[in-house]
Amino acid sequence: MRYLLTERFGFPNDCVLILTDEERNPCRQPTKDNIRMAMHWLVQGCSYGVKLHAIVDACHSATVLDLPYQCTVSKQTGRWRWRDERPMTGACKGTSGGQAVLISGSSNGKSNMSVLPEPYATIGAMTHSFIRAVECEPRTTYGRLLTSMRAIMRDSGGNCNLQGPIGGSIRKVANFSGVEEPQLSSAYKFDIEREPFCM
Is residue 127 part of a domain? Predict the structure, then answer.
């Protein structure tokens, strides 16, 4: 993901903060407090009108940002549709002015964890499908991105086909969270077939 952000989207290295289980520094491990700290670090100094993209490859990931609208594939029509996730109580969900977009996965509740010996790296199915979709078509719409991710998840079968430095050390795709379908959550509804995906 760091390579994708810095090499494909041009973000400076010091604008990328990574939290991993392998990190010895306790402040760089993905605990709840550290993830919250990282989110505060990410938005520090931002003012309204900014756009936050979150790509989350974890169990129950759709609720991570608690956004009011969710776009999923309709089982009846096979088309993407928005669902209003605002609570009936009227409690506020969303942002205080900026646009937030979450790309996550719909899970079957079962995980498929693979443990591989070093030096093999494992990548989650959501992350893999997102990177492959962006690599194949850097200029796309949100709808086409989700459709590509969906096709990659269904067809990849655990094999990693990433090229260049991104795929060099990765040997296995693991569906850690049982993800079956990509989904998009947002602070606002928009036309996903026309809105360009832009980071």
Answer: yes
Residue 130, in any domain of the structure: yes
Residues 44-94 have pLDDT tens digits of 888 878 888 988 887 666 677 889 999 988 888 888 899 998 888 877 777
pLDDT at 122: 64
Residues 30 and 62 in one domain: no
The verdict on 87 and 34 lying in the same domain is no
- Does 161 reside within a domain? yes
Q: Where is average pLDDT lowest: 44-53, 56-65, 167-176, 180-189?
A: 167-176
Q: Check whether residue 39 and residue 97 sit in a common domain.
A: no
Is the pTM for the entire model greater than 0.85? no
User: Mapped to the 3 state alphabet, what secondary structure does the chain carry?
Assistant: CHHHHHHHCCCCHHHCCCCCCCCCCHHHCCCHHHHHHHHHHHHCCCCCCCEEEEECCCCCHHHCCCCCEEEEECCCCCCEEEEECCCCCCCCCCCCCCEEEEEEEEECCCCCCCCCCCCCEEEEHHHHHHHHHHHHCCCCEHHHHHHHHHHHHHHCCCCCCCCHHHHCCEEEEECCCCEEEEEEEECCCCCCCCCECCC
The Cα 71–Cα 169 span in angstroms is: 33
pLDDT score of 175: 55
